[in-house]
Every structure is written in C-alpha cells, then in structure tokens.
Amino acid sequence: MSTQAASNQLLEAVRRFLAEPKRLLIDGEWVEPADGRRFDDPDPSTGETIVAVAHAGEQDVDRAVRAARRAFEERRWHGPPPAQRQRILTRIAELIEEHADELAQIESLDGGKPIALAKRVDVRLAAEHFRYFAGWPTKIEGATLPVSLPNMHCYTRREPVGVCAQIIPWNFPLLMAAWKIAPALAAGCTVVLKPAEQTPLSALRLGELCLEAGVPPGVVNVLTGAGDTGAALVEHPLVAKIAFTGSTAVGREIGAKAGRALKRVTLELGGKSPNVILPDADLERAIKGSFQAIYYNTGQVCTAGSRLFVHKSQFDEVVARLAEQARAAKVGPGLDPSTQIGPLVSREQEQRVRSYIERGVSEGAELVAGGDGQKPIEGGYYVAPTLFVSERDDITIAREEIFGPVLVALPYEDLEEVARRANATEYGLAAGVWTRDVSKAHRMAELLEAGDVYVNIWGPSDPAAPFGGVKASGIGREHGREGLEAYLETKTVWVNLA
User: Fold this and answer.
1) How many domains, in total, are found in the chain?
2) Given the DSSP bridges, would you call strands 430-434 and 38-42 parallel, antiparallel or unpaired?
3) Nearest partner of 454 among 272, 269, 275, 271, judged by Cα
C-alpha cells in the first residue's frame, strides 16, 4: 500500500485530529509547551512525518502536576459520590467504543500496528478496562476492627494516594493508557500521563474523550515529550505514586528515584519469556500458538514467547513448520487490512533488532527464516519474521530482550531440565506450556518463575486478572483488585467512646 493510498483511506475524524500540531492537556485545557518545543511524529510504515507534537519541559510538568494536585485537594474527583466516578468511567468506555474505527486508525498509523489487531485488541480492551474499573468506585470500603482496647471504635478508610505519574510504552499506547488511567480514576486519584514519544497520538485523543465524558479539569493531564519529560515527572515532589511500563533499564532508574523519595511505585518491565512444548501437546495448536506468541504485534510485546523449548523428538518438525509460517506471513503497512506483520515502531528499534540478528549469526545460531538483511518493504521500519535454532542457552539472542520478531528455538530432553533452563534468566514476566496432561500443566505452573503462566494458550488478558512480573520484570500488579489497591492508602481511625 502506497503512502498516498494509506492517506486516502483515513477517516475524516482522523484527518481533522491530525490537521494541526498537537498540544498538551493541562488542567482541562489544550496548551502550547512553555518553551515552544515540538518534535516530529513519524509513521513507521513509511518514515514520513504524521504531525508535529508538543514537547513538554520542566515548566509544563510542574504546571500539570500542580493542576493535578489542586484538583485533588479541591476534591473535584474523589469528593462527589462514588457513583459519579462510575458514570463517567462508563461513559469513557462508551466513547472509546463509539470512536473505535477512528482510534484504531490513529493507533495503526502512529505505531505501525496492523489495523485489524488495533481494533480487535487495543481498542476493545481499552474500553473493557474502563468499564471494569467503573464498577469499583462504589465498592471501595474500609472495615470495622475488633480491637482489644475497651470503649474504642476502630475502623479503616481506603483513600486515594493523590497525584499519580503514569508513563506508558509505545507498543500498546491506547491500551496501556487505559491500564493506568482507569484504576487510578476508580480509586479517586488524579493523573499526569506521559505517553512514549514514538506513539503520542492515541493518548492525546483519549484525553479529549475524558474531557467529553465529564472528567473535571486537572484530573487527567497528558504530557507528550521524551525521556527528559518523564524524568521531570518522576522527580516532581508533588507526585505521590509512579506507574511505569517499559524497559527494565529505565525501570531500575525510576525505582531507585522512587525509593529515595519514598514514593509508591509499580513497575511492569521487560521479559524473555520461555514457551515450552511438552511431547504430549496438541502439536497443531502448540505451533499456531507459539507463532502468535512471538510474532504478534511484530514481536513488540513484553510477554513475547521469544525462547521456544521443544522436546528433541519433535524439534525438527516444529521448527520446520514455524519457519514455513514465518516465510508466508504478510509483512506490510499497518493500515493495509491484509497485513499480518507490521513495521517496527522506529528506525532506532529496527536497527536494534537487526543488530541482534547479526549477533545471533556471529555467535553461531542457525538462521532458518528471515534475517537476511533485506527489508521486506522499502521506506518503513520493516524486519521479516526471523527464526533461529540453537543448542546453547547462553548466546545473546537467547538471553536478552530483543523486542522484535526474532525467535530462538532450543531443544530439551526432560521436564525438570526444561523448567531449570526456562528459569535461568533475570526476567520473570510470563511463561507458557503446551500439554494434554493436566498434572504436568500444574507442575510446570508451579516450577516456572513468572508472574503469568499460560497453559495451552498464549497471552490472554482480562481487566479482572492481575498482571505483572517477578525478578527483573517488575514490582506490583496491574488489573483487578490488586491493580486498584496500588492507588489506595489505608487510614486507621481510632475513636474513644468513653
């Protein structure tokens, strides 16, 4: 699909949204950055600029955080009855669904994501998260405590933590914004959201929808910018809670800063997830699921099943069938409805992934699909689905997170061996196992060191199910009751009745 063809199929609403340079959302108003800085936001399918976007500096960060703090102190959001928060969160979900086609195009254009995937996964689940958390404001409750002191009435209150800094990645920008904003608003917090500089557009459109739904000024603020914007946000003294999804390296820095300032923090970080096919598995189902586990969203997924362990008796067959599927996959622009594998998000990410492919070859891994150095399509940031096989777990591509369409297949002999090898990584975000044996399924779920374990499926998600990692893959959980409680403080009240 040509650049012109892609442009011609954009909805009129998307054209209007992109017609002018994008501004910052601060205190319910769309404002220019204080120092006038902007950056160009490119379409990864072509490399051409989509629109210029405001680059928030320290002054903008301070203004946004103070607006959020003022909204919190004035109880604009958590002061009214909880049913009001419920109604507005439900309305946000409805608006996302009403604008589904528009949001899917924005997401596809900005991040290169296949348009069908953007609508089926990103937009749909974003609405589901707001609808799920809309049910929580009327159910946040404390408890009356049977303390031992006589004539004492002791009870707890669950209260919002305050201003929350929320920093999201570029691989699922709309969905990650929903993951962060929905529970924070349900708890009664105010937020300052900082989307990734590679994909700022859907967060800005979501900000518009929040205002349309009736979110009061200052409760949701959106700051676009680069790493300096996020750093200023993390370090602001009025921020009470930090929620970050992104690389482990940046997560370590944020965790260290939060620790020094004694700020609450949740971190959803990287992964090098093992995917294990046991000999008794439904092989057809396992191969199909393993293909999706790594090549879904062009491999730009923190839970990507990038290390595939296959029993040596089935290894050659599984590798051959996966290689055949990889070669047949349709690589193309995100807005092309026939595209299965879109471009990587940026030129920098393309170069990073290609460097890992070169490293795999130089360290002796056998390349069986993709990775020939030739772009499937010129103009954008494309890398073909790539498959390596190796007898060694210690090569770079089997140890480090690549965040691209690169799979390493590794043979094994027995269950205890594969569990040990699967866990031999600093990461612990997700793991998968394919088997017909329910006993082995539960045994592997116990042995694997991961925040999520998938059995005969890869990567299901639901707003009610906690999500997060262990080891270097993060701290805390998102989604469900645990995700909500990350935005709540417990206050104990003692009343002497004597």
Assistant:
1) 2
2) unpaired
3) 275
Domain that holds residue 75: 3-269+473-492
Assigned token pair, 112 = 């290169």
Residues 144 and 288 in one domain: no
> How far apart are the C-alpha atoms of 3 and 8, rounded to whole Å?
9
Give pLDDT tens digits along the chain (498 positions): 444 455 568 999 999 999 999 999 999 999 999 999 999 999 999 999 999 999 999 999 999 999 999 999 999 999 999 999 999 999 999 999 999 999 999 999 999 999 999 999 999 999 999 999 999 999 999 999 999 999 999 999 999 999 999 999 999 999 999 999 999 999 999 999 999 999 999 999 999 999 999 999 999 999 999 999 999 999 999 999 999 999 999 999 999 999 999 999 999 999 999 999 999 999 999 999 999 999 999 999 999 999 999 999 999 999 999 999 999 999 999 999 999 999 999 999 999 999 999 999 999 999 999 987 666 677 899 999 999 999 999 999 999 999 999 999 999 999 999 999 999 999 999 999 999 999 999 999 999 999 999 999 999 999 999 999 999 999 999 999 999 999 999 999 999 999
Q: How far apart are CA 325 and CA 485, in angstroms?
A: 43
Numbers of helices and strands, H then E, in the chain = 17, 20
Least Cα distance to 37 among 55, 62, 22, 23 occurs for 55
Q: How far is Cα 465 from Cα 481, in angstroms, rounded to an integer?
A: 9
List, by residue number, the catalytic residues. Answer: 268
| Cβ–Cβ under 8 Å, residues 217 and 27 | yes
Specify if 327 maps to a domain: yes
Q: Around Cβ 262, how many Cβ atoms within 10 Å?
A: 7
Give the whole-angstrom CA distance, residue 69 versus residue 189.
9
Q: What is the CATH number of the domain that holds 187?
A: 3.40.605.10
C-alpha 143 chain-centroid distance: 34
Q: Are 109 and 173 in contact (CB under 8 A)?
A: no
- Rounded Cα distance between 388 and 382, Å, is 18
Q: Provide the 3-class DSSP secondary structure of residue 485.
A: helix
Report whether 95 contacts 245 (CB < 8 A): no
* Cβ pair 385, 290 in contact under 8 A: no
According to DSSP, the β-strands at 49-54 and 38-42 are antiparallel
In the structure encoding, which two tokens stand for residue 416, read together? 């205890």
Dist. CA 347–CA 315, nearest whole Å? 34
Gyration radius of the chain's alpha carbons: 23
Residue 155 lies in a domain: yes
Place of tokens 């003022």: 70
Residues 305, 451 within the same domain: yes
pTM for the structure as a whole:
0.96
What is the rounded distance in angstroms from the CA atom of residue 404 to the CA atom of residue 407? Answer: 9
